[in-house]
Amino acid sequence: MRRDYGRDVLADGARKPRRPAAPEVEAELGLVVETADGSFCGAVVGCEKLGVTLEDRHGRQRLFPLDRAAFLLEGRPVTLVRPAPAARPRGPARTASGSVAAPQGTPTRVARASRIYVEGRHDAELVEQIWGDDLRDVGVVVEYLAGIDHLPAIVAGFGPGPGRRLGILVDHLITGSKESRIAAEVSSDHVLITGHPFIDIWQAVKPPVVGIAAWPQVPRGVPWKEGVIRALGWPEDTAAAWRRIRRAARSFTDLEPALLSSMEHLIDFVTDPGGG
């Protein structure tokens, strides 16, 4: 009996076309991806040889393997890979602020009497992220005020004077604002108040760094952070939004010049040999 199996099943034309491989994407910190099955969505907070750790908007972390295309980036399948190692810089090492880093093994400096105050926790975290190494090297401690309304009482309690200077970074420090009026009450030879024009420290991070074209305009009467989150379509979780923004700001080049100049001015003031 003749058996006709048709054409050769191994011929090129008979083979099923292969599905194109998912493109490889480096698992950079802060990159937001979703698992292919939709069970978990989060930002990259760590990447090792065989696995990547994601953190969702509730702060929960999970480790996933890197051996398959198991992720979606903006709805498209991707394979996450470890970021390529950064090229070793030529010349002296630099801190996140762009300053020359202190040599390894440099003894820890005793904290100065002088201090820098910032308005809130987010301000303090961003300052630590960019200027932390520099501040530890010169022995300057940063604290936050939890608002500016009680600044006169806080300054009086600190007791600034020769060898005990106080530098203060204020949000939205523009002529005629409440912040500028309060600042005028406490300025002295031993107190320097600088600021930036932004409503909130979030705006001091350049929009393209965060992956947006511009910071949204929030109507009056709407809490600024909540208004920004809604306008951008992010999950309504202020803490998660801030983590996303802060992870994107890796060096001074990611920040607006207005914040950079204010912070450098404050550091110079509190470390002046005649005042610190």
Features:
single chain; 276 residues; alpha/beta; seven-stranded mixed β-sheet; four-stranded parallel β-sheet; 7 helices; globular
Distance between the termini: 103 Å
Tally the helices: what do you get?
7
**Mean pLDDT figure:** 82
Radius of gyration: 26 Å
Describe the structure.
- It is a single chain.
- The protein has 7 helices and 11 strands.
- Strand 3 (41-47) and strand 4 (51-55) form a beta hairpin.
- With 276 residues, the chain is of the alpha/beta class.
- The model has no long low-confidence stretch (mean pLDDT 82).
List the helices and strands and how they pair.
Elements: E1 24-26, E2 32-35, E3 41-47, E4 51-55, E5 61-65, E6 71-73, E7 76-81, E8 115-118, H1 121-138, E9 141-144, H2 151-158, E10 166-170, H3 178-186, E11 191-195, H4 207-210, H5 224-232, H6 238-248, H7 257-270
Parallel strand pairs: 1-7, 8-9, 8-10, 10-11
Antiparallel strand pairs: 2-3, 2-6, 3-4, 4-5, 6-7
Please provide a brief summary of the model.
This protein has 276 residues and is of the alpha/beta class. It is built from seven helices and eleven strands. It starts with 23 loop residues before the first strand and ends in a 6-residue tail after the last helix.
